[in-house]
C-alpha cells in the first residue's frame, strides 16, 4: 500500500497543496514550523479519522477558513482508491470514497493503513492511560476496520449510561427516589457488557499478538539490557482470556458489584474505557522508572511493533517517522534505519537532512510555508 497523491485545501497552514509521492523512501525536509507535520497529520487523519496532535478538529482548519478538505489517492494491490474527507469543526465530517459519498465517515477506515511515530508518542509511555487505549484501538481498527463500529457503539453506551448515572446521582442528592433510573440502568448494563466484551476480547487478542513484536522491536532499537513487555490491565482483574461470553458475564458482575459506588460518583467505573496497557522494562514499569532515552525507545518500539504486526497480517502499511532521527544517537539511528529500510513506503520528516542515515535518503521534498516541492 502506498499514498500516490495528497491534496489539501485549507488544512492547517496549507491553503492549497498537491503532492505526488512514490513508493520507497521520501524525506520531507524543512525548517521548524514549515508544515512537515501538518502534511503527515493530514495523512494520519485519513488513516484514523483523528489527529495525533489535537483532540478537536478546529485547529486542523486553516485560520479564517470554514472547513478543510483532504484528498488522498492510495494504491493497494495495484488498484487505486480515492478518499476525500471534509473536516467541518463542530459538525460530522463528510467523506467520499472514489467520488461517491459514504453514509458514515468511518467507512473509509482501512483504505489507508498507516503507522506514524511522532514526538508526541512519548505520551504512550509517560502519559495517561487514554493515550495507550487509543494506541490499542487504532491498531485494532487498522487490523480489522469493523472495530471502529464496535468502539463507536461502546462509546455511545458509556455516554448514555453516564448521563443516567449523573441523573441518579443528582436525584439522590436532592433526596429523591432512584428506582426509575435504576431500571433503565440495567438495560444499559446489558449494552455495556455486550459491546464492552467485544472490544475487550479484541484488545486482549491484540495484546497477545503484539507482545513478541514489541520485545523484538525494543531490543532492535535500544539494544537494551532489559526486555520490554506489555500486559493488559483491566478493572475486571485477572479474567483475561479473550472469551466474549465470559467477559460479558464478568462485566455484568463487576457492574453489579460497583452499582452503589457508581451512583455515589455519577459515572461508569468499570469497562474497557477505564483499562490500561502496562508497559514494563524487565520487572519495572516503564512509567515512572524508564529514562528519557528508554521511554523514547519504548514508544518507538510500540509503533514498530504495530508496523511489524500489520505486516505479519499481510497488510503493508505506510510508515511515517516524524522528526525522529534528531532525537537518536548514531547507533540507534543506524539500527532504526536498518529496521525500516525495506518499508513499502516510508515518509521521514526532518529539519536537518544530515540527521537521516544515508541508507534512508530517498526522494527529497523541500517544505516551505504553504508548499512542498520535489527536489531535482
Ligand atoms: N489552523 C491553522 N491555520 C494556519 N496555520 C496553522 C494552523 N495550524 C498550524 N498552523 C501553522 O503551521 C505551522 C506548524 O507546522 P508543522 O507543525 O507542520 O511544523 P513542522 O514543519 O513539523 O515543524 P517542526 O520541525 O518544528 O516540528 C506553524 O507555523 C503554525 O502556525
Automatic annotation (TrEMBL):
Residues 2-351 form the RecF/RecN/SMC N-terminal domain. PROSITE patterns: RECF_1, RECF_2. Its main location: cytoplasm. InterPro entries: DNA-binding_RecF (IPR001238), DNA-binding_RecF_CS (IPR018078), P-loop_NTPase (IPR027417), RecF/RecN/SMC_N (IPR003395), RecF_2 (IPR042174). Signal peptide: none annotated. ATP binds at residues 30-37. It is found in: Cytoplasm. Keywords: ATP-binding, Cytoplasm, DNA damage, DNA repair, DNA replication, DNA-binding, Nucleotide-binding, SOS response. Transmembrane segments: none annotated. The keyword DNA-binding applies. It comes from the Bacteria. Pfam families: SMC_N. HAMAP family: RecF. NCBIfam families: recf. Belongs to the RecF family. The RecF protein is involved in DNA metabolism; it is required for DNA replication and normal SOS inducibility. RecF binds preferentially to single-stranded, linear DNA. It also seems to bind ATP. This is DNA replication and repair protein RecF.
Amino acid at each position: 500500500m502506498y499514498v500516490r497523491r495528497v491534496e489539501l485545501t485549507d488544512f492547517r497552514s496549507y491553503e492549497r497543496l498537491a503532492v505526488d509521492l512514490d513508493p520507497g523512501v521520501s524525506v520531507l525536509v524543512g525548517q521548524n514550523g514549515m508544515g512537515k507535520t501538518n502534511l503527515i497529520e493530514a495523512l494520519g487523519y485519513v488513516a484514523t479519522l483523528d489527529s495525533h496532535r489535537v483532540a478537536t478538529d478546529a485547529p486542523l482548519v486553516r485560520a479564517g477558513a470554514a472547513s478543510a478538505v483532504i484528498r488522498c489517492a492510495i494504491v493497494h494491490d495495484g488498484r487505486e482508491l480515492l478518499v476525500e474527507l471534509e473536516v467541518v469543526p463542530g459538525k460530522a465530517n463528510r467523506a467520499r470514497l472514489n467520488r461517491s459519498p459514504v453514509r458514515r465517515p468511518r467507512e473509509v477506515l482501512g483504505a489507508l493503513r498507516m503507522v506514524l511515530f511522532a514526538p508526541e508518542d512519548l505520551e504512550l509511555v509517560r502519559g495517561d492511560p487514554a493515550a495507550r487505549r487509543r494506541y490499542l484501538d487504532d491498531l485494532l481498527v487498522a487490523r480489522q476496520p469493523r472495530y471502529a463500529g464496535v468502539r463507536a457503539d461502546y462509546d455511545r453506551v458509556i455516554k448514555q449510561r453516564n448521563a443516567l448515572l449523573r441523573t441518579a446521582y443528582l436525584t439522590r442528592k436532592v433526596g429523591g427516589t432512584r428506582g426509575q433510573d435504576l431500571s433503565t440502568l440495567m438495560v444499559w448494563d446489558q449494552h455495556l457488557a455486550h459491546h464492552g466484551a467485544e472490544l475487550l476480547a479484541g484488545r486482549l487478542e491484540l495484546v497477545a499478538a503484539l507482545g513478541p513484536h514489541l520485545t523484538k522491536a525494543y531490543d532492535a532499537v535500544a539494544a537494551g539490557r532489559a526486555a520490554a513487555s506489555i500486559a493488559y490491565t483491566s478493572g475486571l482483574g485477572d479474567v483475561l482470556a479473550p472469551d466474549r461470553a465470559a467477559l460479558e458475564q464478568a462485566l455484568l458482575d463487576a457492574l453489579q458489584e460497583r452499582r452503589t459506588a457508581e451512583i455515589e460518583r455519577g459515572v461508569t467505573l468499570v469497562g474497557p474505557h477505564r483499562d490500561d496497557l502496562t508497559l514494563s522494562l524487565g520487572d519495572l514499569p516503564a512509567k515512572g522508572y524508564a529514562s528519557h532515552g528508554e521511554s523514547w525507545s519504548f514508544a518507538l518500539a510500540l509503533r514498530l511493533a504495530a508496523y511489524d504486526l500489520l505486516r505479519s497480517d499481510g497488510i503493508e502499511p505506510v510508515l511515517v517517522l516524524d522528526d525522529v532521527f534528531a532525537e537518536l544517537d548514531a547507533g540507534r539511528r543506524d539500527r532504526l534505519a536498518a529496521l525500516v529500510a525495506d518499508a513499502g513506503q516510508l515518509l521521514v520528516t526532518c529539519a536537518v537532512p544530515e540527521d537521516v542515515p544515508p541508507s534512508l535518503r530517498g526522494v527529497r521534498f523541500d517544505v516551505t510555508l504553504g508548499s512542498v516541492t520535489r527536489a531535482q
